[in-house]
Amino acid sequence: MIKHLLSAADLDAPTATLVLDTAEEMASLAAREVKKLPTLRGRTVVNLFYEDSTRTRISFEAAAKRLSADVINFSAKGSSVSKGESLKDTALTLQAMGADAVVIRHPASGAPHRLANWVEGSVVNAGDGTHEHPTQALLDAFTMRSRLGRLAGLNVAIVGDVLHSRVARSNVQLLHTLGAKVTLVAPPTLLPVGVRAWPAETCYDLDAVVPDADVVMMLRVQRERMNQAYFPSEREYSRRYGFDVPRMRRLPEHAIVMHPGPMNRGMEIAPEVADSARSTIVEQVANGVSVRMAVLYLLLGGKS
């Protein structure tokens, strides 16, 4: 097993499959009366979050606690970071406190890679800028495999604000590694420069890909990262790229609809779709705990 999880590109197919298989074992704990394992007793996991997060931070905290690790939650607000402390000095402080693993979310792309040079423990990237979010890609892959029974050969459409989405980047890489075919669907203004080098096809027409999609993954429109107009209006965006009930009806019978959250209901996804039987949105949150347990277990204490 690798020492750090910084990018979905760190995972070859056997390693990624090992994480998913381990997550399946972790998920079986949910049915037990006592949901804890003693595997990481005596280990310390630090959640180092420089950006606001609900699902990811709580998910990592729950995962570490279910493995009996000690958890330290570090928020940039209310810490010495607000006084100007650098990432390196924060890292050295954590190192001195004996952190065995640091889970970092940071607005700067590449911050986890820098951190990995400064601490002796394992570093897990929980989202860096618009770059990557590898554990989200793992939990998405786990959800697809749980619902559809396989990943190889699936047609996966990733729709919306690809430009600002670290989730899209990690998913394209991981799903390609595991044998799925990915199509990115977005207006030209929301596709990044160099996207043609990605292992995915691109399309500007959502209605063209819906009938053949096994999975439709809707992305949140990240208005907080937009400093200019990327589309004429929210209404126009929703009409062309929002996933509504008529589009859902044109999906194959077995197909599922995903969203990494948080959602802009009524913009990129209709409430009726988000709450439908095809939707895996709540499952993704539950699966996130199992997948992050698997990652921490394999990095810190597990047997490969």
From TrEMBL:
A Pfam match: OTCace
Protein name: Aspartate carbamoyltransferase
UniProt key word Transferase: yes
Gene: pyrB
This protein's pathway: Pyrimidine metabolism; UMP biosynthesis via de novo pathway; (S)-dihydroorotate from bicarbonate: step 2/3
Residues covered by the Aspartate/ornithine carbamoyltransferase carbamoyl-P binding domain: 3-145
InterPro entries for this protein: Asp/Orn_carbamoyltranf_P-bd, Asp/Orn_carbamoylTrfase, Asp/Orn_carbamoylTrfase_sf, Asp_carbamoyltransf, Asp_carbamoyltransf_Asp/Orn-bd
Aspartate/ornithine carbamoyltransferase Asp/Orn-binding domain segment(s): 153-299
Quaternary structure and interacting proteins, as annotated: Heterododecamer (2C3:3R2) of six catalytic PyrB chains organized as two trimers (C3), and six regulatory PyrI chains organized as three dimers (R2).
Reactions it catalyzes: carbamoyl phosphate + L-aspartate = N-carbamoyl-L-aspartate + phosphate + H(+)
EC numbers: 2.1.3.2
Database matches in Gene3D superfamilies: Aspartate/ornithine carbamoyltransferase (3.40.50.1370)
Binding site for L-aspartate: 83, 166, 220
PANTHER family: ASPARTATE CARBAMOYLTRANSFERASE, ORNITHINE CARBAMOYLTRANSFERASE, MITOCHONDRIAL
Class of this enzyme: transferase
SUPFAM superfamilies: Aspartate/ornithine carbamoyltransferase
Family membership noted in the UniProt record: Belongs to the aspartate/ornithine carbamoyltransferase superfamily. ATCase family.
Keywords linked to the UniProt accession: Pyrimidine biosynthesis, Transferase
Function: Catalyzes the condensation of carbamoyl phosphate and aspartate to form carbamoyl aspartate and inorganic phosphate, the committed step in the de novo pyrimidine nucleotide biosynthesis pathway.
Binding site for carbamoyl phosphate: 55-56, 105, 133, 136, 261-262
